[in-house]
Structure to design on (397 residues):
């Protein structure tokens, strides 16, 4: 266990620095990497990949390549110094939220469940980049022979991205077509590649993809970051603040991630000569926070892409005052409900003394409860309550 904790402590010191500029993106070496934002993506990818193989949606060759590509990206994110896109200003770079604090140890713990299993993975032979490149080339040939395999185009796009072949990655994403149309994470990934390939210009395709991703999932972290960066690049500092303030609510108050994002918000406020955030809106006394957990014997009934909804309502009122959405792959889920997640500007959690709190896990993400949804017992809590524990332990008949 000791090496595990040493590795975890060391790797959390790597900060991901990546800000956009409307005219100039420079490549330079940095100790920063992009692990924290990619952590959730990797975890989701692995779960979906295993599910696809079990259901016969992909063959063994495609599975092996995708698994190798995930491991390759994971390896690169933890042992290499990446080249990242940064502003020419060191100060801006230092305050960029980029892609959040890297927690490789936590990522692997989420994947495998224990430090002992992490050690087992560490002892597996590491594929060389040359091996991965050969497999990517083989998949490329295979995709040209079977262009209707849209899932394969996504795997190829992400493989190209991991190898730094951004132009090829964008082309592969484009050929994935309808497969990504309803997946906010894939849309955000596509937007990221398209903006990168356009030297930081979000006009046109990147912006449209970001907008579509946020329409599907207003809380998608990558999409929120890119939306703020796009606004910042156009000197729309007010817009950048709005997107990043929404993003910061996805993290526990006073966490390292939240502090980095808040620094970027402060930079945008300074650039736009905007007033500071209202104390009431940011005060933890005007929010409800805690953690959502899923009962152990129900975990087999939930897939990674199911939607988790944390809902706060005024007592006796059906209309929510705040809703936070996330994917089931993020469970156990830290949540913060405040005015930034309000359904309407006239019904704010900060105006209430107490709220009813409930959590629902849905296969479809529909607002109305459906048979088969998993849910928690509704509880009434004081506004300002912290460290709440909400257990999803029931199934709607």
């Amino acid at each position: 266990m000791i090496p595990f904790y040493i590795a975890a402590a060391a790797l959390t010191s790597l900060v991901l620095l990546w800000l956009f500029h409307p005219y100039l993106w420079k490549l330079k070496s940095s100790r920063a990497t992009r692990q924290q934002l990619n952590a959730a993506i990797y975890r989701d990818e692995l779960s979906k990949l295993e599910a696809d193989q079990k259901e016969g949606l992909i063959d063994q060759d495609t599975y092996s390549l995708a698994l190798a590509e995930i491991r390759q990206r994971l390896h690169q994110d933890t042992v290499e110094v990446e080249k990242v896109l940064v502003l020419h200003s060191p100060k801006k770079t230092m305050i960029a939220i980029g892609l959040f604090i890297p927690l490789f140890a936590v990522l692997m713990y989420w994947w495998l469940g224990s430090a002992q299993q992490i050690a087992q993975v560490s002892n597996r032979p590491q594929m060389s980049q040359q091996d991965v490149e050969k497999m990517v080339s083989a998949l490329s040939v295979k995709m040209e022979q079977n262009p209707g395999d849209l899932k394969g185009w996504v795997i190829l796009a992400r493989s190209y991205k991991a190898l730094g072949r951004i132009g090829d990655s964008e082309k592969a994403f484009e050929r994935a077509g309808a497969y990504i149309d309803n997946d906010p994470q894939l849309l955000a990934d596509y937007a990221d590649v398209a903006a990168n390939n356009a030297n930081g210009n979000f006009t046109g395709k990147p912006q449209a993809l970001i907008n579509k991703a946020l329409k599907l999932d207003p809380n998608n972290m990558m999409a929120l970051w890119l939306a703020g960066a796009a606004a910042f690049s156009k000197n729309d500092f007010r817009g950048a603040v709005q997107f990043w303030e929404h993003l910061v609510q996805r993290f526990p108050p006073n966490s390292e991630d939240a502090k980095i994002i808040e620094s970027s918000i402060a930079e945008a406020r300074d650039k736009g000569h905007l007033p500071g955030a209202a104390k009431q809106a940011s005060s933890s006394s005007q929010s409800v926070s805690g953690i959502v957990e899923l009962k152990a014997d129900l975990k087999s009934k939930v897939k990674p892409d199911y939607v988790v909804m944390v809902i706060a309502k005024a007592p006796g009122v059906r209309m929510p005052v705040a809703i936070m959405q996330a994917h089931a792959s993020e469970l156990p889920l830290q949540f913060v409900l405040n005015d930034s997640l309000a359904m309407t500007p006239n019904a704010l959690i900060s105006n209430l003394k107490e709220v009813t709190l409930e959590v629902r896990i849905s296969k479809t993400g529909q607002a109305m409860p459906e048979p088969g949804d998993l849910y928690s017992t509704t509880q009434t809590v004081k506004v300002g309550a912290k460290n709440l524990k909400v257990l999803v332990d029931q199934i709607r008949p």
